[in-house]
Amino acid sequence: MVIQLGYQDDYGIRKGLLSSVQAISLKDNPDKARGVRGVFCHYEEDGLFPNIEKSWSINRKAFEDG
């Protein structure tokens, strides 16, 4: 799922902030986010996800510098 802010003018050209958010549903598969890079990562309902530690250990390398 991708959400992008902004608007289209009368000529169909996208204007505004144009920032975007990408969401990934892991659905009990911690390897699904492997290789995804970003600036910020947020896990929702992490108390219900049994593989949260494995998922974060896989995804953490994409957020470390060096």
Strand content: 15-25%
The percentage helix is 10-25%
Structural class from helices and strands? alpha+beta
> Would you count the extended β strands for me?
4
Major sheet attributes: 2 strands, antiparallel
How far apart lie the N and C ends?
29 Å
Radius of gyration, CA atoms, in whole angstroms: 16 Å
Query: N-to-C SSE series?
Result: EEEEH
Number of helices: 1
Mean pLDDT across all amino acids: 85
Query: How are strands sequenced across the largest beta sheet?
Result: 1-4
The low-confidence runs, each spanning 5 or more residues with pLDDT under 50, are none
- Overall geometry: elongated
What are its keywords?
66 residues, alpha+beta, two-stranded antiparallel sheet, 1 helix, 4 strands, elongated
Describe the structure.
This protein starts with a strand and ends in a 7-residue tail after the last helix. It is built from 1 helix and 4 strands, in the order E-E-E-E-H. The protein has one helix spanning 52-59, and strands at 2-4, 7-8, 14-15, 20-22. The longest helix has 8 residues, at 52-59. The chain is of the alpha+beta class. The chain is 12% helix and 15% strand.
